[in-house]
Design a protein that fits this description.
Layout (H helix, E strand, L loop, with lengths): L2 H8 L2 H34 L1 H4 L9 H38 L1
Length: about 100
């Protein structure tokens, strides 16, 4: 691979936009997940009685919320994979064509 061509691509506006977009998406999903998880921890720390509320004979709200957080993490992971497969990968492919 020609280092001059590689340097040209790395300095291109298209590549910088691609990197910036990926960081924005990644950090957004990270902060959303941290907000949800830390919110759950704060509720545990400051309002345990709320999470003790029974929803049936053998289940309480804490279990449902905990499972919800797990499913939410799967959801945002799936959204990231969808974005990466449908948008990011095609942009990377276009940049690779230039090599």
């Amino acid at each position: 691979m020609d280092s001059a061509k590689t340097h040209e691509i790395l300095q291109s506006a298209e590549f910088k936009k691609l990197v910036k977009t990926r960081w924005n998406i990644s950090l957004s999903f990270t902060f959303v997940m941290l907000f949800v998880y830390i919110g759950f921890l704060l509720v545990i720390a400051y309002n345990k009685d709320f999470l003790k509320m029974p929803l049936g004979d053998s289940i309480n709200l804490a279990i449902v919320v905990g499972l919800g957080i797990i499913f939410f993490s799967w959801l945002i992971t799936g959204l990231y994979v969808y974005w990466a497969n449908n948008y990011y990968d095609s942009d990377v492919h276009e940049i690779k064509k230039k090599l």
